Amino acid sequence: MTFYADSVGTAYIDVETLPWMPFLPYSDQIHIKLIKLNPINGEWTSLLRTPAGMELPKHHHAGTVHVYTVEGHWRYKEHDWVAGPGSFVFETAASAHTPVAEPGADVTTLNIVVGDWNILDENDNILAVENWRSMLKRYTDYCAATGTTPVDITSFNGN
Asked: Are the C-beta atoms of residues 39 and 132 closer than 8 Å to each other?
């Protein structure tokens, strides 16, 4: 007997060909490049590029987040450390924080997010929920609006 799990291959993703999209409605200066969306476990992998000195919205994570800093320096308003190139930040589920890109250079991070990412207001009320589904809609809407041919970033067998 052959099981589906035995037929799932390695997915190669040519990240350079994927578009950088403005991270609307949060900012037209912050850009996100979606790399992989996993509808099975709700995970989404992306690159995030933030201009130096910019603050991102405060948010709460329903699941864990892994952040690898590619370039620039950033921190959370709620913590006393600063992440730089080559650093890794692990965020536990149920954590909430406000990212800030340090002055000097733009920040690029590789992010692996599991589950919902809840955007909060100043009173910690949820303003919006982002997850693999909203990211897929963001990607397909952007491709349609710009005439970009989408690739299946949900595929387990390559594009």
From this structure: yes
